[in-house]
Amino acid sequence: AAVVKLFPRLARERERVARVEILTPSGPAVTLVRGAGGFTVAEKLGHPADPGRVEQLLTALAELDSRETVSTNPAKRGTYGVDDATGTRLRVLDADGAALAELVAGKLRSQDPNQLAELRLDFYVRPAGGDEVLLVEELAAPSTEPASWLTRRFFPVRREELVGLERRDLQGKNAESWALERVTAADDPATEEVEDHAWRMTAPEDLPATLYAGDSWAFTLAGLGPADVAAAAGQGEVEDPRYGFSTNAYRARTADGRELVLYLGRPADDNSRYAW
What we know:
By secondary structure, the protein is mainly beta. 12% of the residues lie in helices and 32% in strands. Strand 10 and strand 11 form a beta hairpin. The protein is elongated, with a radius of gyration of 25 Å.
């Protein structure tokens, strides 16, 4: 009967969440801001946050209760890593700045490695403004690395779904343009072994592609995401001479018509390159 939800407002008013702050005493911070299209990561140029990960965090917070209180002694906060000097502070705010949930996340509970059959990932937390330290299984200390909260890819497809890859030389040198098509057993029944790396060049000539050439491009283009962005250069225009986007363009497409077009520009500083 004494068990209560730690953050009943969050459980009732989930739709009111406007901002999530994850703060360490002296290190990096993560600010997740809710907009019309979902949550974005303020420290990473406002790129979209991974909706599944944000939802998982909010669900875990909403379900926390007072079931496993391990301490109410303020002097023991450092022991559990939930003091202000070492803990990770997590705040969930509404549009008015009022806290729907606020706690300090601490250490992972130590366990006997000889009893792996009973291994559980339990963490200590302390609701802000109180002395109770709780042991919870649902909530690990959230990451304070902004890139870890990003939506992973600009083109959210599996690389196996890409069936066409193309480089278009925009400076008129046709010899430097090429196109690759994925080879399947239905396309070429005589193929001895058709695997993910089986591609065929269809331009400028019709030839078998070098082993894994297509897969290396598929891996790069399907995996490209906000974490790869070094800085925002501007809004981006193909004709803008500052970035060199008139050099070449890459296109990756799926069988159902989805595609990513990447304009790769000139080299920038620090081993980076402009892209749009």
